[in-house]
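Fold it.
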Amino acid sequence: MTSPEPIDTADPTVRAVPTGPTDPKSDLRFYLQEARDALLWKLEGLSEYDIRRPMTPTGTNLLGLVKHCASIELGYLGDTFERPSGEPLPWLDDGADLNADMWATAEESRADLYRRAWAHADATIDALPLDTIGRVPWWPSDRNEVTLHHAVVRVTADTHRHAGHADIVRELLDGSAGMSVSNTSLPSGDPAWWERYRNRLEEAAKEAGATT
């Protein structure tokens, strides 16, 4: 088992975990950006085919996850607070195919839309107090109010969830794994160790199955 080629953690572009006193917006921005970076990292070094390739029976694929997360940011951290991005998102229109936001056509870029969505979402976070009330357009009108704080937490949780999906998809594609560029959070990089570890788990599972 390998991990995507790591980036030098001494590089000033690699984000360090904040220490000491911080403000709520900084904390929210840090963990949201950490999830964004992890998700895009899973596409590095792969072909256009592999980033679009469906890897589960429900079609989960890397670029589809990125496209979905971009759409989520533009919605919850844009339209919800009356800050439309102007980005055309035809896959969200009435009459669009089901699940059209979860896969990418041959023409759609791997990162451009997502990076523009980041910039738009970050501008919303910077411009508004965290207690600002917004209205989610696709929620029922009698319960569609959220604070900016709630929206950022929601988007962050969703993005980390999909970064986890991407980690598994990448491992299925080429064996690469790891939590983030600066911290893989893996106990070993030795393929032989991982083979022994997996075999041990398989034996434990068989033993448990034999007793039921």
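The chain has six helices and two strands.
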